[in-house]
Design goal:
With about 210 residues, the protein is α/β, with parallel strands linked by helices. The chain is globular. The chain is built from 9 helices and 7 strands, in the order βαβαααβαβαββααβα. The mean pLDDT is about 95. It has a 5-stranded parallel sheet with strand order 2-3-1-4-7, sandwiched between helices. Strands 5-6 form a two-stranded antiparallel sheet. It has a single domain, classed as Rossmann fold (3-Layer(aba) Sandwich). The protein starts with a strand and ends with a helix. Bound molecules: BIS(adenosine)-5'-pentaphosphate. The site of BIS(adenosine)-5'-pentaphosphate has 38 residues, from helix 1, helix 2, helix 3, helix 6 and strand 6.
Amino acid sequence: MRGSIVLFGPPGAGKGTQAEIIVEMTGKPQISTGDMLRSAVSQGSALGLEAKEYMESGQLVPDQVIIGLIQDRLEDPDASNGVLFDGFPRTIHQAEALSEIAEVSAVIAIEVPDEEIVNRIVGRRMDPETGEIYHVSFKPPPPELISRLVQRKDDNEDTVRMRLAAYHDQTKPLGDWYSNMGILSTIDGTGSIEEVSKSVAKAVRSL
Ligand code: AP5
């Protein structure tokens, strides 16, 4: 398939987890704005310093910062046959800017209710060496890795509630925007990781 795919959904819906199978099936590189911003924060770059406060308080980073970041990334050679966007676009303004610089062929939305989201986010742990995402109950890490796992600063209940509010207010309306364009596939994200992967794979095969 030509063009890019957008993986869409609330915080903690499983976008990062399910991105793996889409990358495997399509060969398109994953572009996660959250990962790019976290890397900038840990490097202490000007972008990181600007983004840190927004991220830690659960607010969206300003559109012009994100759009600039994506424009630069899309110039890399591996992006020439389309990419998998994870966590972008998140506002109508970002989606409009994207439509001017890249072709979006499909949007896969993962739907999960808010209360389930809080459980998922509070129990998430990440391996800083491999980038692998675990969950203390739903995807327990191997015991030998536990001591090196980290928890994101924004993965606490108060900040999750702020992130969910930002999602409902600024991001969710994008679902209707893409649905009106006829390119939205919606997946029930409430089953196990394996069950959701099967639905995602089915959606990708039908593109
Ligand atoms: P970002 O990093 O994009 O965070 P997010 O959208 O809040 O999404 P998450 O990474 O929290 O969740 P996910 O859907 O990837 O879930 P995961 O697979 O890890 O953004 C962080 C911040 O950066 C934003 O708040 C904002 O400030 C800024 N930002 C980023 N992009 C931006 C943009 N475009 N514009 C403006 N600001 C931007 O899964 C979560 C947990 O659940 C894991 O522990 C996993 O193991 C578990 N899990 C997954 N699937 C299942 C399942 N089916 N059953 C049980 N557990 C599951």
